[in-house]
Amino acid sequence: MVLAESIGKYRVGRTIGEGAFAKVRLAVDAETGGCVAVKVIDRSTVLRNNLMYQVKREIGAMRLLNHPNIVKIHEV
């Protein structure tokens, strides 16, 4: 995997998904070496379209889920 940039402790690579207000990038946790997905939220899109409530609701819902087939939130 080609890693082009860093976001915090994550070395991010290619885009693997895209939604209404964010892109999901494949990344490596520099501390553990583990492969993760990093959701990069487009702040200008969120603010321009008044989506802050939707973003917060999605984060809250994801924090409640605990299942081996659902991605886990590590940090926000």
Describe it for me?
GO terms for molecular function: ATP binding; protein serine/threonine kinase activity. It is an enzyme of class 2 (transferase). It comes from Aegilops tauschii subsp. strangulata (Goatgrass). A 4-stranded antiparallel β-sheet has the order 1-2-3-4. The chain is globular and about 35 Å long. It is 25% helix and 36% strand. It is built from 2 helices and 4 strands, in the order E-E-E-E-H-H. The protein has 76 residues and is of the alpha+beta class. It has a single domain, classed as Phosphorylase Kinase, domain 1, CATH 3.30.200.20. Strand 2 and strand 3 form a beta hairpin.
Question: Which short descriptors sum up this protein?
Answer:
Prot_kinase_dom, alpha+beta, kinase, 25% helix, 76 residues, 2 helices, Phosphorylase Kinase, domain 1, transferase, nucleotide-binding, globular, 4 strands, Protein_kinase_ATP_BS
Helix vs. strand class: alpha+beta
Kindly report how far apart the N and C termini lie.
24 Å
Number of domain modules: 1
Q: What is the CATH topology assignment?
A: Phosphorylase Kinase, domain 1
CATH superfamily placement:
Phosphorylase Kinase, domain 1
What is the strand content? Answer: 35-45%
Order of the strands making up the biggest sheet:
1-2-3-4
Order of helices and strands: EEEEHH
Radius of gyration: 13 Å
Output mean pLDDT.
90
- Give start-end ranges of low-pLDDT stretches: none
What's this, in brief?
This protein is α+β, with helices and mostly antiparallel strands.
